[in-house]
Design brief:
15 helices; single chain; 5-stranded mixed beta sheet; alpha+beta; 15 strands; elongated; 544 residues
Length: 544
């Protein structure tokens, strides 16, 4: 800046520190020259083993190692001294730009002048895009050289009265003094973007730098340095998110952050004093394409997450309701035990047992779904007589069908069928299907179960003439907690996981289950196929 330092003593200290800095740099150069000389001596003057003894070679090698270590130590010491001196004079040790402390001092002085003359200032916050890739691909030494090059470009793009500061890492802050409007800062931003995008070489590597810039203005966006940096930082991240090179911060309390950013983006393009370079246009096009794809993906993920969250909430509500329902009759029956005549005790006992059985089944279904999802579902296999297992399942579900006055038809083959399976789980498959058919079939309805042999499978078919399944719900009928809207209106019992358990148990046995329905009011048909020789892949425990 052109403003004079108020203290002459500070100028003397800076002059002394500058001389010390130059002396340290000379020492570093001398150390580097000595190392280079040693390396050249090794490369250009190799020692022939035939001309020297092993003792001589060892002595020369030791001297070279010692000299190299001494030179490296001297270089390290010079580097440390250089960093300390740079810090003392307010400079960044790597780039030579102002550090945070010096930048703050320059801002205070510039603010005094701006207030005195009624002028404006702009603060630019810069962050390099994907700079980490340079360090990861070519090493931190190359990254340091790239930062030095960037600092030189920034210094060349601004005026002598402006200030360039390394804020930290690959972030820089620039203070532009004496500007009339935001367009002036935009001109500098375009100039900086084009300068950094120009290719340059570091060793064998050809690089170019892409940068995102956020701009805030004094006094419009703040009167103190922290506020201006925060607002410029916000605009910079908005520019990075929107896939553009720079954005002017615009703050209005009635406008949301995203709407403000979009408004700033439109204003920027409408008043940009010069077109983007070809490199910037290509980068903008690629970035916008990636941004659109990312936005679409984010919307899809959000919709999927919202749907899963809604289903989970609905399931929890239904689960709580279903688990609470049996408790009321159990509580009533328990309260009446001491007041009821002894002749009524068997009826009370049956009521309690029925509700406890319902609770047990709900919890069992929940646990089965959880085991299936975590891969912990286990089968206890044995050679079972399918007819006996089906009889057990029918006996468990017949009371519900009789309560609804439904007609049940069972058709078994004349010859006994033996399969290798888990008897309890097969009975669970059948009982779940029969219970599902009974709940969604009106009173006086028809329910059927038939078993036939087909090649190497036992085929179990459960039919009903109930409410049927709509075409929309048919593909989702085996998914957990999925229930047709008409099914929920017809019967509010169950959690909507009984058919999920059927599918998982059938698959665990190496079998399949499919469903078909001619439409609403035309009933449904479930067909289960179980291999006669048992599963060949499911996790299992064998017996017998």
């Amino acid at each position: 800046m052109n403003a004079a330092d108020p203290s002459g003593g500070v100028e003397r200290d800076v002059a002394i520190a500058t001389l010390e800095l130059a002396d340290v740099r000379k020492k570093c150069d001398a150390a580097r020259a000595e190392l280079t000389s040693l390396q050249r001596a090794i490369q250009e003057g190799p020692i022939s083993p035939a001309a020297c003894s092993m003792e001589t070679l060892a002595a020369v090698n030791g001297e070279l190692v010692t000299a190299s270590l001494d030179a490296q130590t001297a270089a390290d010491e010079c580097h440390d001294e250089l960093a300390q001196i740079s810090q003392s004079v307010g400079r960044d040790g790597l780039t030579g730009m102002h550090n945070r402390k010096s930048f703050r001092s320059r801002f205070v002085q510039a603010k005094v002048i701006a207030k005195r003359h009624g002028t404006r200032m702009a603060l630019l916050f810069l962050d390099f895009n994907n700079f980490k890739q340079i360090n990861d691909s070519f090493g931190h030494t190359c990254g340091d050289q790239a930062l030095k090059h960037a600092a030189d470009c920034l210094a060349a793009c601004v005026r002598e009265s402006d200030t360039v500061s390394r804020h930290g890492g690959d972030e820089f802050v620039i203070l532009l003094t004496d500007i009339s409007q935001a367009d002036d800062a935009v001109v500098f931003a375009h100039k900086i973007v084009d300068a950094l995008a120009a290719p340059f070489c570091i060793g064998e590597h050809s690089l170019s730098l892409m940068v995102s810039i956020g701009i805030s203005q004094y006094p419009d966006d703040g009167n103190d340095l922290e506020t201006l940096i925060a607002h410029a930082d916000t605009a910079m991240y908005c520019a990075k998110r929107e896939g553009v090179t720079h954005i002017v911060f615009e703050h209005h309390p009635a406008v949301s952050g995203r709407a403000s950013a979009a408004s700033a983006l439109l204003n920027l393009f409408s008043r940009a004093p010069q077109p983007l370079s070809a490199t910037s246009q290509a980068h903008l096009r690629d970035t916008n394409e990636a941004l659109v794809l990312s936005a679409i993906s984010a919307q899809e993920q959000l919709a999927t997450t919202a749907l899963a969250h809604r289903k989970n909430q609905e399931f929890v509500a239904v689960a709580v309701h279903e688990l609470r329902n049996p408790l009321t009759p159990i509580r009533v029956a328990a309260a009446l035990l001491g007041q009821t005549h002894i002749d009524q005790l068997p009826r009370m006992k049956k009521a309690i047992e029925r509700q406890v059985g319902h609770l047990t089944r709900l919890i069992s279904d929940l646990m089965d779904v959880s085991r299936a999802n975590t891969g912990k579902l286990r089968l206890v296999l044995g050679d079972i007589k399918l007819a006996d297992t089906i009889d057990d399942a029918v006996a468990a579900t017949r009371p519900a069908m009789e309560l609804r006055h439904q007609q049940f038809h069972l058709q078994l083959p004349s010859l006994p069928i033996s399969i290798r399976a888990d008897a309890v789980r097969v009975a669970q498959i059948v009982s779940n299907l029969l219970d599902n058919a009974s709940r969604y079939t009106p009173p006086e309805g028809q329910i059927g179960l038939s078993v036939v042999m087909s090649h190497e499978d036992a085929v179990l078919t459960v039919t009903d003439n109930g409410i049927g399944i709509s075409a929309d719900a048919l593909p989702r009928v085996f998914e957990p907690f999925e229930q047709d809207v008409r099914a929920v209106g017809f019967s509010r019992e169950g959690l909507g996981i009984g058919l999920t358990v059927v599918r998982e148990l059938a698959h665990a046995h190496g079998g399949t289950v499919v469903v078909s329905s001619a439409g609403e009011g035309l009933g449904s048909t479930f067909v289960v196929r179980l291999p006669l020789d048992g599963p060949s892949f499911a996790a299992q425990t064998s017996q017998g």
